[in-house]
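Hi R.,

As promised on Friday, here is the backbone we talked about, encoded as C-alpha coordinates. Could you run it through your design pipeline when you get a chance and send me back a sequence?
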Protein backbone atom coordinates (compact mmCIF):
# COMPACT_ATOMS: atom_id res chain seq x y z
CA UNK A 1 0.00 0.00 0.00
CA UNK A 2 2.79 2.41 0.93
CA UNK A 3 4.64 1.46 -2.20
CA UNK A 4 1.63 2.46 -4.30
CA UNK A 5 1.51 5.87 -2.59
CA UNK A 6 5.21 6.43 -3.22
CA UNK A 7 4.82 5.66 -6.93
CA UNK A 8 1.80 7.93 -7.18
CA UNK A 9 3.66 10.76 -5.45
CA UNK A 10 6.64 10.40 -7.75
CA UNK A 11 4.38 10.52 -10.81
CA UNK A 12 2.55 13.60 -9.52
CA UNK A 13 5.84 15.35 -8.68
CA UNK A 14 7.16 14.64 -12.17
CA UNK A 15 3.97 16.01 -13.74
CA UNK A 16 4.02 19.13 -11.57
CA UNK A 17 7.73 19.63 -12.24
CA UNK A 18 7.23 19.30 -15.96
CA UNK A 19 4.27 21.66 -15.87
CA UNK A 20 6.26 24.21 -13.86
CA UNK A 21 9.23 23.96 -16.21
CA UNK A 22 6.94 24.49 -19.19
CA UNK A 23 5.13 27.41 -17.55
CA UNK A 24 8.03 29.29 -16.03
CA UNK A 25 11.03 28.35 -18.17
CA UNK A 26 10.17 26.97 -21.59
CA UNK A 27 7.11 29.14 -22.27
CA UNK A 28 8.85 32.51 -21.47
CA UNK A 29 11.82 31.49 -23.59
CA UNK A 30 9.50 30.61 -26.43
CA UNK A 31 7.67 33.94 -26.13
CA UNK A 32 10.93 35.91 -26.03
CA UNK A 33 12.22 34.06 -29.05
CA UNK A 34 8.97 34.73 -30.90
CA UNK A 35 8.97 38.42 -30.02
CA UNK A 36 12.64 38.83 -30.92
CA UNK A 37 11.94 37.49 -34.37
CA UNK A 38 9.05 39.91 -34.89
CA UNK A 39 10.07 43.27 -36.36
CA UNK A 40 7.79 46.33 -36.34
CA UNK A 41 6.97 47.80 -39.74
CA UNK A 42 9.18 50.69 -40.85
CA UNK A 43 8.07 54.08 -39.52
CA UNK A 44 7.10 56.60 -42.21
CA UNK A 45 9.10 59.84 -42.06
CA UNK A 46 10.12 62.72 -44.29
CA UNK A 47 13.76 63.53 -44.97
CA UNK A 48 15.94 65.82 -47.01
CA UNK A 49 19.70 66.30 -47.41
CA UNK A 50 21.61 68.93 -45.48
CA UNK A 51 22.81 71.65 -47.81
CA UNK A 52 25.52 74.30 -47.92
CA UNK A 53 24.46 77.96 -47.94
CA UNK A 54 26.20 81.32 -47.90
CA UNK A 55 25.34 83.04 -44.62
CA UNK A 56 26.59 86.25 -42.99
CA UNK A 57 26.80 86.06 -39.22
CA UNK A 58 23.80 87.87 -37.74
CA UNK A 59 23.58 89.15 -34.18
CA UNK A 60 20.00 89.68 -33.06
CA UNK A 61 18.68 92.02 -30.38
CA UNK A 62 15.59 93.95 -29.34
CA UNK A 63 15.71 97.74 -29.35
CA UNK A 64 13.73 100.94 -29.19
CA UNK A 65 13.50 103.68 -31.80
CA UNK A 66 14.39 107.22 -30.77
CA UNK A 67 14.38 110.48 -32.70
CA UNK A 68 17.69 111.88 -33.93
CA UNK A 69 16.53 115.05 -32.17
CA UNK A 70 13.49 115.16 -29.92
CA UNK A 71 12.31 117.62 -27.28
CA UNK A 72 9.20 118.88 -25.54
CA UNK A 73 9.07 122.55 -26.51
CA UNK A 74 8.54 124.60 -23.33
CA UNK A 75 8.19 128.23 -22.37
CA UNK A 76 10.98 130.00 -20.50
CA UNK A 77 8.58 132.59 -19.07
CA UNK A 78 4.97 132.67 -17.95
CA UNK A 79 2.21 134.37 -19.89
CA UNK A 80 -1.08 134.22 -21.74
CA UNK A 81 -1.15 132.53 -25.16
CA UNK A 82 -2.21 135.01 -27.81
CA UNK A 83 -1.44 132.89 -30.91
CA UNK A 84 -1.07 129.19 -31.66
CA UNK A 85 0.66 128.91 -35.03
CA UNK A 86 1.22 125.15 -35.23
CA UNK A 87 -1.08 122.25 -36.13
CA UNK A 88 -0.65 118.86 -34.48
CA UNK A 89 1.28 116.35 -36.57
CA UNK A 90 2.67 118.86 -39.08
CA UNK A 91 6.25 119.19 -40.30
CA UNK A 92 7.93 122.46 -39.30
CA UNK A 93 11.24 124.06 -40.22
CA UNK A 94 13.83 125.33 -37.80
CA UNK A 95 12.96 128.81 -36.52
CA UNK A 96 9.22 128.52 -37.30
CA UNK A 97 7.16 130.33 -34.66
CA UNK A 98 4.97 127.84 -32.80
CA UNK A 99 3.32 129.82 -29.97
CA UNK A 100 3.14 133.53 -29.15
CA UNK A 101 2.62 134.78 -25.60
CA UNK A 102 1.18 138.17 -24.65
CA UNK A 103 3.84 140.90 -24.89
CA UNK A 104 1.72 144.04 -24.46
CA UNK A 105 3.35 144.97 -21.13
CA UNK A 106 6.83 144.31 -22.50
CA UNK A 107 6.14 146.48 -25.57
CA UNK A 108 5.17 149.40 -23.33
CA UNK A 109 8.22 148.85 -21.11
CA UNK A 110 10.38 148.71 -24.22
CA UNK A 111 9.09 152.09 -25.43
CA UNK A 112 9.89 153.62 -22.05
CA UNK A 113 13.34 152.01 -21.97
CA UNK A 114 14.11 153.21 -25.51
CA UNK A 115 13.19 156.77 -24.54
CA UNK A 116 15.36 156.58 -21.43
CA UNK A 117 18.20 155.19 -23.51
CA UNK A 118 17.87 157.99 -26.05
CA UNK A 119 17.96 160.61 -23.30
CA UNK A 120 21.04 158.96 -21.78
CA UNK A 121 22.81 158.95 -25.15
CA UNK A 122 22.13 162.67 -25.60
CA UNK A 123 23.47 163.40 -22.11
CA UNK A 124 26.56 161.28 -22.76
CA UNK A 125 27.18 163.04 -26.09
CA UNK A 126 26.89 166.46 -24.38
CA UNK A 127 29.35 165.48 -21.66
CA UNK A 128 31.75 164.14 -24.27
CA UNK A 129 31.61 167.48 -26.14
CA UNK A 130 32.13 169.46 -22.94
CA UNK A 131 35.05 167.23 -22.03
CA UNK A 132 36.78 168.05 -25.30
CA UNK A 133 36.35 171.76 -24.46
CA UNK A 134 37.78 171.16 -20.95
CA UNK A 135 34.69 172.64 -19.28
CA UNK A 136 33.51 169.53 -17.38
CA UNK A 137 35.05 166.94 -15.12
CA UNK A 138 35.80 163.30 -15.90
CA UNK A 139 33.45 162.27 -13.11
CA UNK A 140 30.50 163.83 -14.93
CA UNK A 141 31.54 162.05 -18.13
CA UNK A 142 31.78 158.67 -16.34
CA UNK A 143 28.35 159.17 -14.78
CA UNK A 144 26.81 159.95 -18.17
CA UNK A 145 28.50 156.88 -19.70
CA UNK A 146 27.18 154.59 -16.94
CA UNK A 147 23.62 155.89 -17.36
CA UNK A 148 23.84 155.38 -21.11
CA UNK A 149 25.06 151.77 -20.73
CA UNK A 150 22.43 151.01 -18.06
CA UNK A 151 19.66 152.31 -20.30
CA UNK A 152 21.02 150.23 -23.21
CA UNK A 153 21.08 147.07 -21.04
CA UNK A 154 17.48 147.70 -19.98
CA UNK A 155 16.43 147.86 -23.63
CA UNK A 156 18.23 144.60 -24.43
CA UNK A 157 16.67 142.88 -21.41
CA UNK A 158 13.14 143.77 -22.47
CA UNK A 159 13.89 142.72 -26.05
CA UNK A 160 15.13 139.36 -24.74
CA UNK A 161 11.89 138.84 -22.77
CA UNK A 162 9.88 139.67 -25.89
CA UNK A 163 11.95 137.15 -27.89
CA UNK A 164 11.38 134.47 -25.22
CA UNK A 165 7.63 134.90 -25.56
CA UNK A 166 7.84 134.12 -29.30
CA UNK A 167 8.41 130.33 -28.98
CA UNK A 168 10.00 128.90 -32.15
CA UNK A 169 11.07 125.43 -33.32
CA UNK A 170 14.70 124.78 -32.30
CA UNK A 171 15.15 122.38 -35.25
CA UNK A 172 13.22 120.94 -38.18
CA UNK A 173 10.90 118.05 -37.38
CA UNK A 174 7.35 116.84 -36.85
CA UNK A 175 5.19 118.48 -34.20
CA UNK A 176 3.21 116.24 -31.91
CA UNK A 177 -0.20 116.89 -30.42
CA UNK A 178 -0.21 120.42 -29.04
CA UNK A 179 -1.06 120.91 -25.38
CA UNK A 180 -2.06 124.61 -25.37
CA UNK A 181 -4.85 126.71 -26.78
CA UNK A 182 -5.28 130.43 -27.41
CA UNK A 183 -6.04 132.33 -24.22
CA UNK A 184 -4.51 129.69 -21.95
CA UNK A 185 -2.09 130.72 -19.21
CA UNK A 186 1.20 128.85 -19.31
CA UNK A 187 3.81 128.79 -16.60
CA UNK A 188 7.57 128.71 -17.06
CA UNK A 189 8.75 125.21 -18.02
CA UNK A 190 5.34 123.97 -19.16
CA UNK A 191 5.47 121.62 -22.18
CA UNK A 192 3.61 123.13 -25.12
CA UNK A 193 4.18 120.62 -27.93
CA UNK A 194 6.51 117.71 -28.73
CA UNK A 195 8.94 118.11 -31.62
CA UNK A 196 10.66 115.08 -33.16
CA UNK A 197 13.20 114.95 -36.01
CA UNK A 198 12.31 111.70 -37.81
CA UNK A 199 14.80 111.57 -40.69
CA UNK A 200 17.17 110.01 -39.92
CA UNK A 201 15.99 108.02 -36.91
CA UNK A 202 18.01 106.12 -34.33
CA UNK A 203 17.64 102.72 -32.70
CA UNK A 204 19.18 101.84 -29.33
CA UNK A 205 19.65 98.15 -28.50
CA UNK A 206 21.80 96.09 -26.10
CA UNK A 207 24.39 93.50 -27.12
CA UNK A 208 25.92 90.82 -24.84
CA UNK A 209 29.51 91.52 -23.89
CA UNK A 210 30.77 88.37 -25.66
CA UNK A 211 29.85 90.01 -29.00
CA UNK A 212 31.64 93.32 -28.34
CA UNK A 213 34.71 92.25 -30.33
CA UNK A 214 32.56 91.73 -33.44
CA UNK A 215 30.88 95.15 -33.39
CA UNK A 216 32.23 98.05 -35.44
CA UNK A 217 30.92 101.53 -36.25
CA UNK A 218 29.51 101.48 -39.78
CA UNK A 219 28.46 97.80 -39.82
CA UNK A 220 25.15 97.13 -41.55
CA UNK A 221 21.98 96.84 -39.48
CA UNK A 222 18.57 95.44 -40.47
CA UNK A 223 15.47 96.40 -38.52
CA UNK A 224 11.86 95.22 -38.54
CA UNK A 225 8.82 96.52 -36.66
CA UNK A 226 5.42 94.96 -36.01
CA UNK A 227 3.66 97.92 -37.63
CA UNK A 228 5.06 96.97 -41.08
CA UNK A 229 5.37 93.16 -41.22
CA UNK A 230 7.66 91.83 -43.91
CA UNK A 231 9.41 95.18 -44.48
CA UNK A 232 13.10 95.43 -43.59
CA UNK A 233 14.70 98.82 -42.89
CA UNK A 234 18.41 99.23 -43.55
CA UNK A 235 20.87 101.25 -41.48
CA UNK A 236 24.28 101.13 -39.82
CA UNK A 237 25.87 101.30 -36.40
CA UNK A 238 26.47 104.93 -35.44
CA UNK A 239 28.14 104.59 -32.05
CA UNK A 240 28.98 102.20 -29.19
CA UNK A 241 28.58 103.04 -25.53
CA UNK A 242 31.72 103.62 -23.47
CA UNK A 243 30.86 101.05 -20.78
CA UNK A 244 29.10 97.74 -20.21
CA UNK A 245 26.06 97.78 -17.92
CA UNK A 246 26.95 95.98 -14.70
CA UNK A 247 23.45 94.65 -14.04
CA UNK A 248 22.90 93.09 -17.48
CA UNK A 249 26.48 92.76 -18.82
CA UNK A 250 25.38 94.26 -22.11
CA UNK A 251 26.73 97.09 -24.25
CA UNK A 252 24.35 99.75 -25.53
CA UNK A 253 24.63 100.16 -29.31
CA UNK A 254 23.10 102.99 -31.33
CA UNK A 255 22.20 102.58 -35.00
CA UNK A 256 21.02 105.23 -37.44
CA UNK A 257 18.56 104.60 -40.28
CA UNK A 258 17.14 106.78 -43.08
CA UNK A 259 13.43 107.41 -42.64
CA UNK A 260 12.35 109.50 -45.60
CA UNK A 261 8.80 108.12 -45.60
CA UNK A 262 8.45 108.83 -41.86
CA UNK A 263 7.17 105.28 -41.22
CA UNK A 264 9.36 104.71 -38.19
CA UNK A 265 8.38 106.67 -35.08
CA UNK A 266 10.18 107.20 -31.76
CA UNK A 267 9.23 104.69 -29.08
CA UNK A 268 8.54 101.82 -31.48
CA UNK A 269 9.61 98.28 -30.51
CA UNK A 270 12.18 97.02 -33.01
CA UNK A 271 13.80 93.68 -33.89
CA UNK A 272 17.39 94.55 -34.75
CA UNK A 273 19.93 92.39 -36.60
CA UNK A 274 23.58 93.33 -37.01
CA UNK A 275 25.34 91.84 -40.05
CA UNK A 276 28.85 90.92 -38.99
CA UNK A 277 31.78 90.15 -41.29
CA UNK A 278 31.66 88.48 -44.71
CA UNK A 279 29.43 85.69 -46.00
CA UNK A 280 30.71 82.14 -45.42
CA UNK A 281 29.67 78.54 -46.16
CA UNK A 282 27.52 76.85 -43.50
CA UNK A 283 25.67 73.51 -43.41
CA UNK A 284 21.97 74.03 -42.80
CA UNK A 285 18.99 71.78 -42.08
CA UNK A 286 15.29 72.50 -41.61
CA UNK A 287 14.36 73.72 -38.16
CA UNK A 288 12.09 70.71 -37.64
CA UNK A 289 15.05 68.35 -38.02
CA UNK A 290 16.67 69.50 -34.75
CA UNK A 291 15.68 67.81 -31.49
CA UNK A 292 16.52 70.06 -28.54
CA UNK A 293 17.14 68.55 -25.11
CA UNK A 294 19.04 69.16 -21.88
CA UNK A 295 21.68 66.65 -22.97
CA UNK A 296 22.40 68.38 -26.26
CA UNK A 297 20.88 69.01 -29.67
CA UNK A 298 20.59 66.09 -32.06
CA UNK A 299 19.31 65.01 -35.49
CA UNK A 300 18.32 61.66 -36.96
CA UNK A 301 20.47 60.81 -39.97
CA UNK A 302 19.22 58.36 -42.60
CA UNK A 303 21.58 55.39 -42.98
CA UNK A 304 21.42 52.12 -45.00
CA UNK A 305 20.44 49.09 -42.93
CA UNK A 306 23.15 46.47 -42.21
CA UNK A 307 23.50 43.72 -44.83
CA UNK A 308 21.94 40.97 -42.69
CA UNK A 309 18.85 43.09 -42.14
CA UNK A 310 18.65 44.31 -45.68
CA UNK A 311 18.80 40.80 -47.14
CA UNK A 312 15.91 39.48 -45.08
CA UNK A 313 13.65 42.50 -45.36
CA UNK A 314 10.98 42.84 -47.99
CA UNK A 315 11.13 45.61 -50.53
CA UNK A 316 8.93 48.67 -50.22
CA UNK A 317 8.46 51.59 -52.59
CA UNK A 318 7.93 55.09 -51.25
CA UNK A 319 8.25 58.66 -52.47
CA UNK A 320 11.89 59.69 -52.00
CA UNK A 321 13.08 56.11 -51.32
CA UNK A 322 14.03 53.61 -54.08
CA UNK A 323 12.22 50.28 -54.06
CA UNK A 324 14.03 47.69 -51.95
CA UNK A 325 16.22 50.19 -50.09
CA UNK A 326 16.26 49.41 -46.37
CA UNK A 327 17.00 52.35 -44.12
CA UNK A 328 17.50 52.99 -40.42
CA UNK A 329 17.63 56.14 -38.30
CA UNK A 330 20.92 57.03 -36.64
CA UNK A 331 20.77 59.57 -33.82
CA UNK A 332 23.64 62.06 -33.95
CA UNK A 333 24.43 64.88 -31.56
CA UNK A 334 25.32 68.15 -33.28
CA UNK A 335 26.27 71.72 -32.43
CA UNK A 336 23.81 74.29 -33.76
CA UNK A 337 24.32 77.93 -34.73
CA UNK A 338 22.15 80.64 -36.18
CA UNK A 339 18.49 80.21 -37.06
CA UNK A 340 17.20 81.92 -40.18
CA UNK A 341 14.05 81.56 -42.30
CA UNK A 342 13.12 78.20 -40.85
CA UNK A 343 16.62 76.70 -41.20
CA UNK A 344 19.31 76.05 -38.60
CA UNK A 345 23.06 76.18 -39.14
CA UNK A 346 24.94 73.08 -37.93
CA UNK A 347 28.51 73.94 -37.01
CA UNK A 348 29.62 70.45 -35.93
CA UNK A 349 28.52 66.83 -36.38
CA UNK A 350 26.91 66.88 -39.83
CA UNK A 351 28.21 67.07 -43.40
CA UNK A 352 26.52 68.57 -46.43
CA UNK A 353 24.54 66.00 -48.42
CA UNK A 354 23.68 63.72 -45.49
CA UNK A 355 19.96 63.08 -45.28
CA UNK A 356 18.25 64.09 -42.05
CA UNK A 357 14.74 63.25 -40.89
CA UNK A 358 12.60 66.39 -40.84
CA UNK A 359 9.30 64.99 -39.48
CA UNK A 360 8.32 61.81 -37.68
CA UNK A 361 11.16 61.72 -35.11
CA UNK A 362 8.75 61.25 -32.19
CA UNK A 363 7.77 57.75 -33.28
CA UNK A 364 11.25 56.30 -33.82
CA UNK A 365 14.22 55.29 -31.70
CA UNK A 366 17.91 55.12 -32.62
CA UNK A 367 18.44 52.27 -35.07
CA UNK A 368 14.74 51.99 -35.97
CA UNK A 369 13.75 50.94 -39.47
CA UNK A 370 12.26 53.83 -41.44
CA UNK A 371 10.45 54.48 -44.68
CA UNK A 372 10.82 57.88 -46.39
CA UNK A 373 7.71 59.45 -47.86
CA UNK A 374 8.10 63.07 -49.01
CA UNK A 375 4.80 63.19 -50.88
CA UNK A 376 3.11 65.23 -48.10
CA UNK A 377 5.78 67.41 -46.49
CA UNK A 378 5.03 69.57 -43.47
CA UNK A 379 4.50 73.18 -44.60
CA UNK A 380 4.90 76.02 -42.07
CA UNK A 381 2.20 78.70 -41.80
CA UNK A 382 2.72 82.02 -43.54
CA UNK A 383 2.72 83.86 -40.21
CA UNK A 384 4.00 82.14 -37.10
CA UNK A 385 1.74 82.62 -34.06
CA UNK A 386 3.14 84.80 -31.29
CA UNK A 387 3.16 83.74 -27.70
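Update: got your reply. Pasting your designed sequence below so it's all in one thread:
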Amino acid sequence: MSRRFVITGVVLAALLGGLGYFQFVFKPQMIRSFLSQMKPPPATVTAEPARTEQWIERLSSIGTLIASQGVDVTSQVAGIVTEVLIDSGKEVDQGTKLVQLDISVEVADLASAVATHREAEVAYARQTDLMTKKVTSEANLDTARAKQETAQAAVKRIQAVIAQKAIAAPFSGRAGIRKVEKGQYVSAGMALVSLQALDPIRADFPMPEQHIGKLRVGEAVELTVDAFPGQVFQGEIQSLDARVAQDTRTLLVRAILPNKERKLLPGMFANVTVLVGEAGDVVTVPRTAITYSLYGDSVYVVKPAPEKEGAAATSSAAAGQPAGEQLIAERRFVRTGQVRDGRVAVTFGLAAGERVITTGQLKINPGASIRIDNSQPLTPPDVRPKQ
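One thing I noticed while checking it: Confidence is low (pLDDT under 50) at residues 309-319.

Thanks again,
M.
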